[in-house]
Amino acid sequence: MAQTVEPVVPFSLAVMVMNKGYGIARALKLTSGQPEIIENDKGLLIAFKIIGAKMGMNPITPSLTVDFGDITSSQTKTAQ
User: Fold this and answer.
1) What is the dihedral of CA 66, 70, 74, 79, to 10 degrees?
2) What digits encode the pLDDT tens for the residues 21-69?
3) How many other CB atoms are found less than 10 A from the CB of residue 71?
4) Burial class (CB within 10 angstroms; exposed 0-12, middle 13-18, buried 19+) of 21
5) How far is CA 51 from CA 9, 22, 42, 79, in A?
6) At the top level of its lineage, which domain of life is listed (predicted)?
7) What distances in angstroms separate CA 65 from CA 33, 38, 44, 68, one per listed residue?
8) How far apart, in whole angstroms, are the C-alpha atoms of residue 18 and residue 64?
């Protein structure tokens, strides 16, 4: 029996960081783990690949670690 291969569907994940303190948050980095499937009853073939990343509207190197740099008081930065 031939297995049907579904098309790849990219999706976006984003994180927004806001400094609610009065000082500067210096050299802020956020690291995520590789996505992990914990239940796959049908035994589907699944793979994850980072194909792009942005800090605000600017492209950055695709990675599971995002370097937000310094965030001043009341400043918000978004990575996707």
Assistant:
1) -20
2) 999 999 999 988 877 788 888 877 777 788 888 998 999 888 888 999 9
3) 18
4) exposed
5) 12, 36, 26, 14
6) Eukaryota
7) 9, 22, 28, 10
8) 20
How much is the pTM?
Answer: 0.73
> Amino acid identity, residue 21?
G
CB 60 within 8 A of CB 54: yes
Label the pairing between strands 15-18 and 76-79: antiparallel
Report the pLDDT value the prediction gives residue 40, as an integer from 0 to 100: 83
- If phi > 0 it is left, if psi is from -120 to 50 it is alpha, else beta; for residue 68 that is alpha
> CB 25: neighbour CB atoms within 10 A?
18
Nearest to residue 17, comparing CAs of 64, 51, 56, 63?
56
